[in-house]
Design goal:
By secondary structure, the chain is an all-alpha fold. It is built from eight helices and no strands. The termini are far apart. The C terminus is likely disordered.
Length: 193
């Protein structure tokens, strides 16, 4: 792909992330093109259908969250890294849930999703589980907590959270971290991770 084509594709995906997060199923490809500063033909040259655009946007967003999780894994303090990751994922949760809700129906094992979406979701889960296991290994998270537990709590926070609820979200995440045993000190400090 030519450099300008790749740049346009990235602009479209970034715009789609915002448009789909704001408008859900009512989002239009025309609005995506307008926000990306490209023609509708450019959108459809990169993504044959709206569903292709939704899937690519979901994959890109999951990959971004996975990369954040992996970057935090490099932290010398696995407990703080896990707490930071949960704060990051809780803030990102409403966008992630909106994008995932736009995908075709699927079962709990991801059956019905396209292979790229399934692979991106699996990589995200693996990164989250890795961060949890590192925190558990140093006693910074309860040993009985599973990745599924953490995912469920994050989904609940995402459904209950409006993007404008910064302080309330931070307190709720702190309470969740206390329950997970992942924040023995200073959970209320937004910058401790």
């Amino acid at each position: 792909m030519r450099r300008d084509g790749a740049a346009n594709r990235e602009k479209v995906l970034l715009a789609a992330e915002h448009v789909f997060a704001e408008k859900g199923a009512a989002a239009s490809t025309d609005e995506v093109a307008r926000r990306a500063g490209v023609s509708i033909a450019t959108v459809f040259r990169n993504f044959a259908t709206k569903q292709d655009l939704i899937e690519a946007t979901a994959c890109r967003y999951l990959e971004k969250l996975t990369n954040q999780a992996l970057a935090l894994a490099e932290s010398p303090d696995p407990g703080k890294a896990f707490a930071s990751l949960l704060r990051t994922l809780a803030a990102a949760g409403p966008v992630k849930m909106t994008l995932m809700d736009l995908l075709p129906p699927h079962d709990d094992d991801g059956q019905g999703l396209s292979r790229p979406v399934t692979e991106a979701a699996d990589a995200f889960r693996a990164a989250l589980n890795g961060a949890l296991h590192r925190a558990q290994a140093v006693g910074a998270a309860r040993p009985d907590v599973t990745g599924d537990d953490v995912s469920l709590l994050l989904r609940a926070l995402a459904h209950a959270t409006d993007l404008s609820e910064g302080e309330a979200l931070d307190r709720a995440v702190g309470i969740v971290l206390d329950g997970l045993g992942a924040s023995p000190r200073g959970w209320g400090d937004r910058h401790d991770g």
